Amino acid sequence: MINDPKSAHFIAWTELGTSFVVSNVGEFSRSILGSHFKHNNFSSFVRQLNMYGFHKINRTPRAQRTSTDAQTWEFSHHKFLRGRPDLLDEIKRKALEPDPAMKHRVELPGEVAAQLGAMRDENRRMWEQLTNERRRVEKLVGVVNRLWDVVGKGFPGSGTFFLSLFLYHQILSSNYALSPTISK
């Protein structure tokens, strides 16, 4: 693109050949970028340059900035030099910064890591078993409630029977549901 005579009025090497200049950014975006990239967005073009280690050199002081069409941008890379195509292979995309959470992660010795993994597996199994036991208790409480309704309708006035059934119901629903035993 930079050596293409068709784009010479938009993009060109500086006199020393250590950087290049993009002039008339708006027209450059509309007529040149679309034919070389999947977009014609100048900001995306600048982001791509930054990802490959290019740096913007400020040519226009902030107070004198003009419209996009009149702006001139200069970029440089220490391996992007006029007449040195042999250096182009050395321009690589920057590696992504590692996740800060992973930066301070400590690698555990193999035996400790294996024990930790086994403990996690056992913990998961115990939670699954606890969940299953809670479901089972809920079903049993439902059965007792239905029995309570049936017996209450079938034997009205039987106070002692209902009292013992009520106490049994309370013991079953409160104590067992709060502290189920988990077997291995």
Automatic annotation (TrEMBL):
Residues 33-57 form the HSF-type DNA-binding domain. It comes from Crucibulum laeve. PROSITE patterns: HSF_DOMAIN (PS00434). PANTHER family: HEAT SHOCK FACTOR PROTEIN, HEAT SHOCK TRANSCRIPTION FACTOR. SUPFAM superfamilies: Winged helix' DNA-binding domain. This is HSF-type DNA-binding-domain-containing protein. Belongs to the HSF family. InterPro entries: HSF_DNA-bd, WH-like_DNA-bd_sf, WH_DNA-bd_sf.
